[in-house]
Amino acid sequence: MKVSKSAYYDWCKRPGKLIGAQELQLRRRIKELFKATRSSLGSRKMMKALRAEGFEIGRYRVRRLMDQMGLKVTQRVAYKVTTKRKHSDSVAGNLLNQNFNPVGPNQIWAGDVTYCRTGEGWMYLAVVMDLYSRRIVGWAIDKTMTTSLVLRALITAYNLRRPSKGLVFHSDRGSQYTSKRYRKQLQRFGMRASMGDVGACWDNAVVERFFGSLKHDWLFKVSQPTREHMKRDVAAYIRYYHLKRLHSANGGRSPVNHELLFKNVSGFS
């Protein structure tokens, strides 16, 4: 080890560094949070999570402790296109123009579809997100990617939230969203369609970010042997995402807590 004899004996005589009870509790909590999120919390989000629990700590100290404990986050991979529209279907204009921050719930929803691989084959997940809180208000998962899949997610969201007419629903130009069935359902619910440009994933960046977190912070961290296992794991992530995951766009609050704050201030129900 290229250490001199005198240096070794000097090291043996040094007293061991004691870790106080508060420091030990902090380290344990960092390890627990990192494990609970499947090794997905970086130093910034870890700091916010610890502060929410009452710890007085800065990002530099969090980063140093995570380095000492060997806690490293795996990076995400690039976006891939999943759907293409049929040229016979009409498209709606882009009503958002990348403005993803409405002033209240049930004003702008966004939807998209992604693919998830299991040992039994592919699964396809459709979600509907309320852009105010980033909450997933409706979702559906199946082994085929059809218009019925995205309709199930939309109908679930509508039945849960019962929004007023005029809500904007934003999506890409995939064949499921440009189909006549889907456009008619939006009209029945009194929703206005909005669609991003072709191949511009940033036109629906908030939902794409959710998919990235779902896959690379959660699903890819464990084996997905069956479709049923994948479905349960997606449900588990959405529960965690709603209740625990902190969002910068929400002022460092989870989607549920952000909506509760709005409700308390405005009387929204």
TrEMBL record:
It holds the Pfam family rve_2. One of its GO terms (biological process) is DNA integration. GO terms for molecular function: nucleic acid binding. InterPro entries: HTH-like_dom, Integrase_cat-core, RNaseH-like_sf, RNaseH_sf, Transpos_IS3, Transposase_IS3/IS150/IS904. PROSITE patterns: INTEGRASE. NCBIfam families: transpos_IS3. Residues 101-263 form the Integrase catalytic domain. PANTHER family: TRANSPOSASE INSF FOR INSERTION SEQUENCE IS3B-RELATED (PTHR46889), TRANSPOSASE INSO FOR INSERTION SEQUENCE ELEMENT IS911B-RELATED (PTHR46889:SF4). Signal peptide: none annotated. This is Integrase catalytic domain-containing protein.
